[in-house]
Amino acid sequence: MSRRWPSLLPSGRALIIGVPWLWLGLFFLLPFLFVLKISLSEPVLAQPPYLDLLREIEDGLVTIVINLGSYQLLGEDPLYRNALFSSLEIAAVATLCCLLLGYPMAYAIARAPSHWRLPLLMLIILPFWTSFLIRVYAWIGILKGNGLLNNFLLWLGVIDQPLVIMHTPIAVYIGIVYSYLPFVVLPLYATLVRLDLALLEAAADLGCPPWRQFLLITLPLSLPGVLAGGMLVFIPVMGEFVIPDLLGGPDTLMLGKLLWIEFFNNKDWPVASSLAAVLLLVLIVPFVLLRHFERKAEQGR
Amino acid sequence: MRSDYFRLNRIAAALLLVGAAQASAEVLHVYNWSDYIAEETVARFEAQSGIKVVYDVYDSNEVLEAKLLAGSSGYDLIFPTARPFADRHIRAGIYQPLDRNTLTHYQNLDTAILNSLADIDPGNQYLVPYMWGTTGIGYNVAKVKAILGEEMPLDSWRLVFDPQIVAQLAGCGVTLMDDATEVLVAARAYLGQPTDDFSNTAVAEAAAVVSQVRPQLRYFHSSQYINDLANGDTCVAQGYSGDILQARDRALEADNGVEIAYAVPSEGAVVWTDVMAIPADAPNPSAAHQFIDYLLQPEVIAEISNYVAYANANAVATELVDEEIRNDAGIYPPAETRAKLRVLNTPTDKQTRAMNRAWTRVKTGQ
Amino acid sequence: MTTSRPFKPRPFKLQSFKPQPSRQTPEREPLVRIDNVSKRFGDFCALDAISLQIHQGEFFSLLGASGCGKTTLLRILAGFETPSSGRVYIDGVDVTDLPPYLRPVNMMFQSYALFPHMSVADNIAFGLKQQRMPKAERTERVAEMLALVQIEALATRRPHQLSGGQRQRVALARALAKHPKILLLDEPLGALDKKLREQTQFELVNIQERLDTTFIIVTHDQQEAMTMSSRIALMNKGRIEQVDPPRHLYEFPATRYAADFIGLVNLFEGHVVDQVDDQLLVHSDALQGALWVHHSHPLVVGMPVTVALRPEKIQVLSVLEAGQPNQFRGQIREIAYLGDMSIYHVELPSGKRVQFTQANAQALIEQPLTWNDEVILGWQANSCGVLLA
Q1: d(CA A94, nearest CA chain C) in Å
Q2: DSSP state, residue B81
Q3: Which of A83, B52, B237, C303 is most buried as measured by Cβ atoms within 10 A of its Cβ?
Q4: pLDDT one-digit tens code per residue, B169-213
Q5: Of C44, C42, C109, nearest to C74 (Cα)?
Q6: If residue B115 lies in a helix (H) or strand (E), which one and from where to where?
Q7: What is the distance of C-alpha C188 from the center of its chain?
Q8: ipTM of this predicted complex?
Q9: Which chain A residues have a beta carbon less than 8 Å from that of B68?
Q10: Number of other CB atoms surrounding residue C249 within 10 Å
């Protein structure tokens, strides 16, 4: 009896590998199939506001009706293409800013005396203890016409007219860079702190001055962290909605906002779904690249 | 029709209410706009009826609609804006007809308002009007007069759509709502053209008006203007009557020397009505009827009007409303102003989408 | 019981037989002059007033237990640490404050510190690129280095694709590529297994001879130091105990620490009783008598001294030989069989134990010694030495 059981049950190994796959299937693949299904249907005024793909015409005869109109709209209307490019641009610029700002921070923490590292990391993580929304709201108070920043600059006498920052792309960048900076700092720190300092000594020993040590050794070896941090910013910023909505101006055109409009204002779930599907496709490409890079880095270790 | 994005404190208060109401046997789930009821109303109803009220709030019709269309929202009573939202919902078949016999105070309702809803709700089967208001212009009296002179009539859409005037006011700050229908209909009124035309050409004409002034505008937003007007950060804002009056009151409270006034533009403005309705899949429609009937009592609804500064749809209640509110031309407009008001016709879904996409294009300067 | 194999000096062409006349010429400026260098880390004194001179072409070892300061001294030579006081001269130039990348020395790291993102050839070429060597010359030099350490086939591999021994060769080639005046090696063989280590020792010596580069090596392994070095500096607690060629260090340790650190040694505490010419008579309680020791410097009678005697210098006598000094009775208590030879622990009447070794080839011919055998141990006066510290 007892000997027969193990063959019926999955082996421990299969179980361990199976759980993440099950998780992915249940919480990523399945919802995505729903989204895909909706994107191929027609919008109607009903509950839910789209037609099922499977339709029974008369007893027993079932047809599948696929509507590619949503994708056609995305292809034809330059609004969506422009939104994609604009999102790509904002995500790319924000990622670059995060990296430029986050790298020195991560570097400084990784090189700080070990008893300082944890407190410094805590300072990076600390803002997460306040609601994201409240932190973005705080920026409104700082950046607006008679906000903290302008009043301070006016008081200093640096400017005599309030700077218009609120509701401009600059405000969006400030908000995004502020919100996503920790996502860059943490993976960068993780790679930089692992860097064998003997490698830098070896480079110095072979005639390499400090700045070139950074360029030839530290930077290339921290690329996995740069990439991981970059992706952690780039991917969510592509679909970011709250920050451009709260801090951005009218000309901040992003996919997240368009998705909101299609879903809420237009009740056009198929178009919203097809936008989501396209966004996913756009994001999967860099993700696959990241995996590829990680695998290479693993081999390097 | 009000829009208060992410009013966190209100939402938090609502959550507390949810927590308090969990234990009882009979429960009523109400989904209303944030900040759209008097402080004591729910508690008094609970004491009187023995029904626990779970009171949730939203800040845009779109959020409400998305929940309803997804199905199984779990709410017994909702407060959508009649046009175009409740109109669409009736046609989508997601409301249940009212049991008029249980609504003992129904006769208190203003028949004129009931009649105005008859075209979208024949026989008033589904909707009970709650509050109504207008969409017009709020402005900083001193600053606008200083820039445009005393002569310039300020009850005009020219303040937000005439390129020359907007250019003069730009430094002071001019804003439009972030709402395709509201802005494009207002632009049609500014052009002196029929506001119920949602054809592509009509939308394109209206969009052209907005495109012209767009570079001069401070922003498009449907609630930000409350604070900014009150603080003196902006000078002119298109907005809901109640919101602009709220800005006026905030400025008064802050005593910051900012005087805000509300005007219904002479070219015509949209009058809107928020209604009560019971979703078809409401778990407890009888409790919803009891709550509606409670709100139909003149003294109850008058207290709400006093609190939220909107006119209610209850004819008997008007005299119970505070004099200050009742005589405010921004809340209860005089007859000649009412003559300029028009209801918003519901565009078809195709028109709505075309309009929203055109709007996004205009807004982002594409 | 001792189970580790004691050091047995192997006659080996590269060490003390190496002709070294030029190195000893006093008027010649040494290649490295360490002048009164101290290094403190907080309260800890890692190096205490070290002075040392190393000459061109030497294979010089810094030998000592962990924490003795040998690595710190090497890092000061490389420029990774700055001495707290004292100066360092290389080729007559004061390099004390020169950063590592400006010094004419290269280092082979204990961990090898190969750049993981570069191929073997790029690792070797790294230093050459830094000095902007033209590409053609560089390629040639890399090929030369690959050939030197016999890893031509591995040029395109990444470090993670190499075995430990191969990595060690890459590290060596990289450090030698710039033809440094001095090569510093920090425990270069520490990560290799025993067999590979012994084999590589000879290779290192061969390479050093061929290039005539000065090698300064840090090691804790006395056998490694003895096998490879032309001179050894034995370090202890931040100080230098003794600097000498391996044979000299073994045969004539200057201090108790030196005698004890290298190989096996028997130590007898005592005091001077008499001195005749270059012979000292030392009384030791452990021996319950006096023994004669060769010592050329005059000492005061009554002065406390320690006599050091290597186990292999002790002979087992069948009978007491009349008129011969340094003969003592004892009983065999322990025998450690090591294959080629055995170590015998003999208990003297005083309870003091003395170790001696005997080649097993010899033991087979004679009557084999066994536990509890009564033996007479004897040695020549010039087989043992006097330690003053």
Answers
A1: 28
A2: B
A3: B237
A4: 998 999 999 888 999 999 999 999 998 889 999 999 999 999 999
A5: C109
A6: helix B111-117
A7: 14
A8: 0.81
A9: 47
A10: 29
